[in-house]
Amino acid sequence: MRIILCKGQILGPISGADETLVTYALQLRKAGISVSVLLMHFCSANDQYYQRLVQGGVPVSWIASRLAHKSLGTGRKLSYKLFELFPPSKKIIRKRALGVVTSLATRYYKQCRDYLDQQNADLMHIITPDPSAMVMIRAGHDARIPIIYQELGLPYHPPDFESYYRQFTSVLPLCAEIAALSPSLAEHCREKLLTTTKISVLPIMSDDVSNGHADERPANKQVTFGFAARMEELKGPMILMRAFGEVRTAAPNVCIKFAGDGSQREKINAQARSLNVSEQYHHYGVYTNPDDRTAFMRDLDVFVLPSFTEGTPNSIVEAMANGKPIIASAVGGIPDMIDSESGILVPPGDAPALAKAMTFLAQNPQERIRMGHAARERYRRLFSPKAVVPLMLETYDRIRVESRDSSLVRSDKNTHPWTN
Questions:
Q1: Domain 2-205+386-419 and domain 223-382 have a common topology
Q2: CATH code that applies to domain 223-382
Q3: Core-most of 105, 136, 205, 318, by most CB within 10 Å?
């Protein structure tokens, strides 16, 4: 079976979609599948995700010229500056940018079609709802290659991206199947995408890093909370810092570590100073490889992600793989990921509720250990390569067979809990 994983471009350095693409590609390669990655736009040879693909033996190709990539990058930087200077103009700027990016991507339809005609691929697996993906879907459909589009978040969310989805839904009927990341997200896709295309579930995954058991940190040491994501408003870092200020009052022997970067980093630093918790706050920066990520996660006692919107975050899966209890907002697919045994869900934006959950785990070391074991076991059943790769292969095989003869509907044999 020959699979092409497709994405508009590698965005890095903190991109859940890039992490998902790379993990899928590397795990398929390990399973003996012929897999390659196709990008619309060139990526730097020094990019961490590109380097991981090359080191893992996964071929990477791109369609557009380097000049187009450079122009796109310049335009993105300009848009971000305008967002900062004129926040109310975001919607207008995004709409105009969408027109420019769509026009640019459309120019490369023929090159994309010519490339696909030469590949003899059995299936294209495309992620992210952007203009580049639209062109790839049209080219793949015209080249008679079955296509699965994977939605990595909530359709039409966040609100700034509504225009992207209104445009993107036009190509969904050309796909053989749409995959969501969890059962509740699949239901959301059915409600919002209004398509007759079949919708199934295909989870993200993370490498098994703990050799079958969770790391147990000494119960009498300082309790370390951790956050790993873009330091942007929708990820809730300011809410987390406010909650941490309350936790420090009830449980003085705590600290918090942030991994990532973003527009709110300086605001978070200032908030830490105003709450008098600067000495307990540590900014780890952006980890650039899986070893750094594992080292960060293993140094935590509890992982916290108070987002306002999410799909199924990679960082939560990575924390679960390392046997860490989770505190997270009850948004998107997170309630599918975390049950009451493995973590605590709180309402988004509710700093007092978040502080209460953090204080509870800070003061109860045995509960942290118990939840950490449960999180590790839940990772094994839902997000480990042993659970997800067989489901991916069965999904690919089913789509390939059904695309040849729709009467040959294969039964699902996989035991992944979300296949039902």
A1: yes
A2: 3.40.50.2000
A3: 136
Q: Look-up: residue for tokens 């809730």? A: 236
Q: For residue 296, what pLDDT is reported? A: 95
Is-above-0.85 flag for pTM?
Answer: yes
Between 277 and 410, residue with greater pLDDT: 277
- pLDDT on residue 162: 80
**Dist. CA 43–CA 61, nearest whole Å:** 10
Whether the Cβ atoms of residue 51 and residue 35 lie closer than 8 Å to each other: no
Looking at residue 229, its pLDDT comes to: 94
b/e for 332-353, b at 16 or more Cβ within 10 A? bbbebbbeeebbbbbebebbeb
Gap between the Cα atoms of 318 and 257, Å rounded: 16
Enumerate the domain spans of the chain: 2-205+386-419, 223-382
Q: What are phi and psi of 6, to 5 degrees?
A: -125, 145
CATH of domain 2-205+386-419: 3.40.50.2000
Q: Which residues pair with 4 in a beta bridge?
A: 36, 124
In the three-class reduction of DSSP (H, G, I as helix; E, B as strand; rest coil), residue 389 is classed as helix
pLDDT at residue 411 tops 70: no
State pLDDT tens for residues 334-391.
999 999 999 999 999 999 999 999 999 999 999 999 999 999 999 999 999 999 999 9
Total Cβ atoms within 10 A of residue 274: 12
- Tokens standing for residue 200: 């199934």
The 3-class SS string of 201-225 reads ECCCCCCCCCCCCCCCCCCCCCEEE
Quote the tokens at residue 359: 């204080």
Encoding tokens for residue 154?
């909530």
Mean pLDDT score, 183-199: 92
Q: What is the DSSP string of 278-289?
A: GGGEEEEE---S
Q: Is pLDDT above 50 for 212?
A: no
